[in-house]
Design brief:
The chain is α+β, with helices and mostly antiparallel strands and 283 residues long. It is built from ten helices and ten strands.
Length: 283
């Protein structure tokens, strides 16, 4: 017996067999499975590194999520390929498991929707890591975008896990999409008869003293409306740090309050109207 025959016998040595189902597992089968898994693993790793190496940091994060999905898909294909190699009837498995897969499809439909939405978000680029968004009245910064979910951090330093389908189905305000500069506003009321030009200059000086407010575009003051006893003004200013606008606006309000007191400008209080007719009827 020559070496070639010995090698053939070695690879064809049966470790496990089910003759009724024509299933046979040999040493050659085990080695083939190991070889296939190793090739799949290192091949995917090589492709992932090759693509990510040439991509920008933001694109690299997106590609990692996409490759995770590709990994799952390819390993499923390899799994069924291996079953076919050892002699299992794949067609029979699909047929007998059809009802199970239908049930799983209904049970996992939201997860599939999240994954499809995640792929769309990753390639559409309407949402990027670092963007400041507002969803359901909550302001947060995007920390990570995965295939199934997106993780955002609120101003209270709490992480929120948002299913990706919510970012597609719901209205999401992206404050910093393609431009980190936003326009913020502060509403201010004054009594009718107050020197409006003085108030305007005081409001503008309050924002000009704040180093986090941009010089250009210039801050501006609008008269929004005249009330029965007060005038409402709106102070608009521009900042780059949208995530911290609550702190910045608070600092500006402190400055406005201080300057109003120095210039004897009073903030209006609610006016209570008394119905004289009703009072006379009671008395």
């Amino acid at each position: 017996m020559n070496f070639k025959q010995l090698l053939s016998d070695f690879f064809e040595y049966e470790l496990y067999t089910i003759k009724s189902h024509n299933i046979s597992i040999t040493i050659g089968t085990i080695l083939f499975i190991v070889f296939t898994l190793l090739i799949t693993k290192y091949g995917l790793t090589f492709l992932r590194k090759a693509f990510i190496k040439k991509a920008s940091p933001d694109a690299a994060l997106r590609l990692r999520s996409v490759f995770n999905f590709v990994n799952y898909f390819i390993y499923i294909v390899v799994f069924f390929f291996i079953l076919n190699v050892i002699g299992l009837n794949i067609t029979m498995i699909w047929t007998t498991s059809a009802a199970l897969f239908v049930g799983l499809g209904f049970a996992l439909q939201d997860i599939f929707r999240d994954i499809i939405a995640g792929i769309y978000i990753l390639f559409d680029k309407t949402l990027n890591i670092g963007d400041v968004i507002e969803i359901n009245g909550q302001v947060a910064r995007v920390k990570a975008i995965h295939l199934r979910c997106t993780i955002v951090e609120t101003r209270n330093l709490k992480d929120i896990v948002i299913p990706n389908r919510k970012l597609i189905d719901d209205i999401v305000y992206n404050w910093t999409h393609e431009d980190p500069v936003i326009r913020a506003r502060i509403d201010v009321g004054i009594y009718i008869g107050t020197d409006v030009e003085l108030v305007k200059s005081v409001l503008l000086s309050a924002v000009e003293d704040n180093k986090e407010v941009l010089k250009k575009p210039h801050p501006i003051v609008f008269i929004d409306q005249f009330g029965e006893s007060s005038i409402r003004l709106i102070l608009y200013y521009f900042i780059e740090n949208a995530f911290d606008n609550d702190r910045i606006s608070s600092d500006i309000r402190f400055a406005i309050d201080k300057k109003f007191k120095l210039n004897n400008i009073s903030l209006p209080v609610p006016v209570l109207k008394v119905d004289q007719t009703a009072v006379n009827s009671v008395t």
